[in-house]
Amino acid sequence: ERELDGCTLQLGKSAGITIFHESVDHLRASVMPRFQAACDEHGWDLRLSMTWTCINADLSFMSKANGIRRLIDRLGVRKDELLGIGDTMSDLAIRQEVGRFACPSNAAEELKPHADDLAEAPEARGVLEILNTLTA
């Protein structure tokens, strides 16, 4: 981790980095546009996505969809056997690779229309609510 302009830069991922700051508004209004401009200027092949708590920067050819396709190939499961859960627009890649997709109540409004199921509860409680419907 490294401190930079009030942000914490988390390295060590195999295909990306995460930037945290105590103010998500600062990340959204100041850091994200500057980071995007630097990517454009230098030709860095990164996909930037704003989450509820941080900015994720991933290699553009790596995605959650790639991971799900690898899981399908390795385990021999079918797409219609998989449930995905997401709360930000970067999770739309999950939706495209699974048979069912659900969101906790705090999910981005733009993502909710893509969900088959919406939990009444937010965050982890919403995820548990969704998972409990599988065993009911």
Q: How would you describe the overall organization of this protein?
A:
This protein is of the alpha/beta class. Helices cover 35% and strands 24% of the residues. It is built from four helices and eight strands; from the N terminus they run βββαββαβαββα. The protein has helices at 24-42, 64-75, 92-95, 123-135, and strands spanning 2-4, 7-10, 16-20, 46-50, 54-59, 83-85, 100-103, 117-118. The strands form two sheets. A five-stranded antiparallel β-sheet has the order 1-2-3-5-4, with helices on one face. A three-stranded parallel β-sheet has the order 6-7-8, covered by helices on one side. The chain is globular and about 50 Å long. The chain starts with a strand and ends with a helix.
Q: What can be said about this structure in brief?
A:
By secondary structure, this protein is an alpha/beta fold. It is built from four helices and eight strands, in the order βββαββαβαββα. The chain has a five-stranded antiparallel beta sheet, covered by helices on one side. The chain has a three-stranded parallel beta sheet with strand order 6-7-8, covered by helices on one side.
What are the main properties of this structure?
alpha/beta; 136 residues; single chain; five-stranded antiparallel sheet; 8 strands; three-stranded parallel sheet; 4 helices
The total count of strands amounts to 8
Bin the helical content.
25-40%
Task: Walk across the major sheet and give the strand order.
Answer: 1-2-3-5-4
Structural class by secondary-structure content: alpha/beta
**How many distinct helices?**
4
Shape: globular
Which radius of gyration do the C-alpha atoms yield? Answer: 17 Å
Order of helices and strands: EEEHEEHEHEEH
Indicate the mean pLDDT. Answer: 88
- Biggest sheet details: 5 strands, antiparallel
Assess the beta-strand content as a share of residues: 15-25%
Low-confidence stretches: none
Distance between the termini: 42 Å
